[in-house]
Amino acid sequence: MTTPTEVKYTSLSLSSLITYFMSSFVLVRCLLEDVSITSAAKASTLPSADEDLNWDHSVDLNEDFRILWKIINQDITFEIQARTMGYVGFGFSPDGNIAGSDMAIGWVNRGHTYFQDRHIKRSGDPEPVVDPSQDYILILGYENQTHTVLRFRRKLNTCDTMHDIAITNDTMRILYMYNEQDPPHGSAKPGRLPDPASSFRPYRPMLLTQRASSQYEHFDHIRILELRNEDVELPGTDDTLIWCEMFKLEDMKHKHHLIRYEPIYDSPSSVHYLQHITLRECHGTHQELEEMAREQGKQCMGARDIPLACNAIVASWSRGSNSFTFPAETGYPMESRQAKYYLMETHYNNLQPDLTQLPTRQMADNSGLKIYFTHILRPHDAGVLSI
């Protein structure tokens, strides 16, 4: 007869075996993927230090910190351009906090570039420590009179589940930091990174794996239209401002398909204010719509505050998303005989009212949406479900 102690031991052994086999499976899968990706990469050469990349995406996280990136197969290449002569950091947070984050830290000292794959322990210590596995690969690094530039690449999934965060189609929480000082010459020892706690900036939610807009800008059949607000006076506090602007599209005599839209930031300051943009079709009397289209936009309480039927949502953008591209077989139908007037509803909210880096003179905003549409119709019409 089996004793309780033996049952407990057997259960632990079984659990250990399951954990062992699952870990082995993940490791083998990562190794197989790496072999497959390496073979594919030979056909599509990864970027080198001498190559001037045609970047897919570029975002200013603030006035002093720009990131550019490009995805080739299962590799993603980043370039950081930071206005500092000290160290810089860039990485990903699991939940918006710094604990448990995956970071790359680098700096340039006397012409030599130091670059390390690091992580932040969950103990609460804000200083990133060096990873046992270095999965971020430096391509180039240099500094000029004002900026530090680092270019590096990594796998979308490094298979380092202990210290790295996989880059997926989900919203990624971007962490970044920079300081005016370098660590002591080449030092990676704990406690050598100058003032890490105050070097972090607020995280930014972003989608990294979306398709680039450049592929749509070189086709004659694709039209691009910018819908911009006009001189919106932004709030100096953390109050929410909702702005409604009416647009008239009068030269769409035939059906078109909307295939992509993306935000337009009027200035680096706009990044801190823009929260949501919704574009709606409007149906109502011609005179009312025409008057609103001719007038400047105004503060409102959303589409319900407009005495017109502006219910059908055409496009909806939220903070953290760079753009939205419809699948290749679908497009949102647009035709002036059905809906000639469109209402753009923009939500502004300064999440950091005490942020001293926001120039007070840049308080009139002209941000909006850039839309891509074509007369070459796709097989299916898209729609938006509102709940």
Automatic annotation (TrEMBL):
It comes from the Eukaryota. One of its GO terms (biological process) is norepinephrine biosynthetic process. PROSITE patterns: DOMON. GO terms for molecular function: copper ion binding; dopamine beta-monooxygenase activity. It holds the Pfam family DOMON. CDD domains: DOMON_DOH (cd09631). GO terms for cellular component: extracellular space; secretory granule membrane. PANTHER family: DOPAMINE BETA HYDROXYLASE RELATED (PTHR10157), MOXD1 HOMOLOG 2 (PTHR10157:SF40). Belongs to the copper type II ascorbate-dependent monooxygenase family. This is Uncharacterized protein. It comes from Musca domestica. The lineage of its organism: Eukaryota, Metazoa, Ecdysozoa, Arthropoda, Hexapoda.
